[in-house]
Write a structure and sequence with these properties.
The protein is mostly helical. It has 17 helices and two strands. It starts with a helix and ends with a helix.
Amino acid sequence: MTLSIEVLRAPVADDLSALDALIRRRLESDVVLIRQVAEYIIAAGGKRLRPLLVLLSARACGYSGHSHIELAAVVEFIHTATLLHDDVVDESDLRRGRKTANASFGNAASVLVGDFLYSRSFQMMVGVGSMAVMQVLADTTNTIAEGEVLQLMNVHNADTTMRAYLDVIQRKTAKLFEASGRLGAMLAGADARTEEALAQYGMHVGTAFQLVDDVLDYSGDPEQTGKNVGDDLREGKPTLPLLYALQHSPGDEAQRVRIAIERGGEGALVEVLEAMRRTNALEYTREQAVIAANSARALIGHLAPGPCKEALLSLATFSAERSL
């Protein structure tokens, strides 16, 4: 049975309550449209796994201060800004079961409020007063932007390699998970080994999370995932399930998958799903997610026993086993 997200949150429940309050305060603006879009985003919910990772990492390393809550909010703002921009680039109209912000408020408002969130996050990280923290987050946001551009370059490219695909998800998605693990350790003054272990743990968890996202795009229940099935195909994104099906299908079927990638759209979705079924592409991708999650768990074996360590171990499992 898949772990409940509430089980993962339990050890830092008070920190998460403080985080929610801080997010609302930091989203305040005298510009009405910013408040409207920000409130819309908050109401949409979300798992908040990245800020959860900041909180759990800090507490697992013995941190007893409050700056981890500020950095958790920074991480969430950066993540939300990327979602706002992503939905504009992808022309998405559904996220978390509701119309996307760009579908509700327009592309211009989404891009500009995304910019507001980026700039607000940098105001907040300055307040933490650590040049090392600022360096990590500045490098992270730059890497995420590179990942977005790399993904754009791969759109409709059926010759994308698996290595190129993994490079994109490690930059675009896993990098912020990596930063979240590292920041918690840094705040706690953990030794270099522990800091690097939590950073690499985050990278593996983020990789597993994105691999499962790519599986759910073709197999998830829209009522649960809040997204349309086949969006990646419509947008011409060569994700791992699609690349695996392409590489392991016989000639004519492989050609049809190739054409589906190159042309995009949803017209070939039924054929692509059949190719994935015959090649076990979704099962293979899930297996890769489990491998990444197991690598993450192995990295933090040396942490001191406690509820936050257990939650980190469970978070890695959740990232590979989730169905929404």
